[in-house]
Amino acid sequence: MSQLKKYFVTGIGTDVGKTICSAILVEALEADYWKPVQAGSLDSTDMDKVRSLINNSKSVFHAEHYRLTQPMSPHAASKFDHVSISLSDFKLPQTKNTLVIEGAGGLMVPLNDQGDLIVDLIQHLDAEVILISQNYLGSINHTLLSIEALKSRKLKIAGIIFNGPSNNETEEIILSISGLKCLGKIPQSEHIKPKFISEQAAILKSKF
Length: 208
Hints:
- The chain is an alpha/beta fold.
- It has helices spanning 18-29, 46-53, 74-80, 118-125, 139-152, 168-178, 194-204; strands spanning 6-11, 32-34, 37-39, 61-62, 66-68, 99-106, 128-133, 157-163, 182-186.
- It is built from seven helices and nine strands, in the order βαββαββαβαβαβαβα.
- α1 packs across α7 (194-204) and α5 packs parallel to α6 (168-178).
């Protein structure tokens, strides 16, 4: 890779596979990993999951800026914990490596009551977006709306990763309408282990 990059991994919704795809990206690029906001599951965080799945020794895992106890939208979870989330508080971790940043939920998830959203955090961090899509009834709409939101803010989009069972009709129309690059298609697996991550990373690496 000619220059170090910051990739922000976001999804068309919740539970579409951002963490698994982040692990594959971290392994493929031997990149650092950072999850700015962890909401809930503090005993087994997304960073813990990614760290347990990669094999390379180059990646560094940077501490979350906010660790919230409840599995809620950050704006609600922060109220529960009596924490104030401010966009200006987010600072990129110090690294000389490519950085994979994993978001919370989708683009329009609120960070606070002042109207700051995940998409605003992406803009604040000046990161390039990798959008995770998953096939389900309505996913074309959700994917294209997410892309529209990114393009309307003139944010850089590296491409789309389709995660889970493939649907060629769905994937082709999304790529045709959006004009975006398909970075990969991650098959569904009941056994997500380092071997699976390594295999998928080897395939994904050629797209960067």
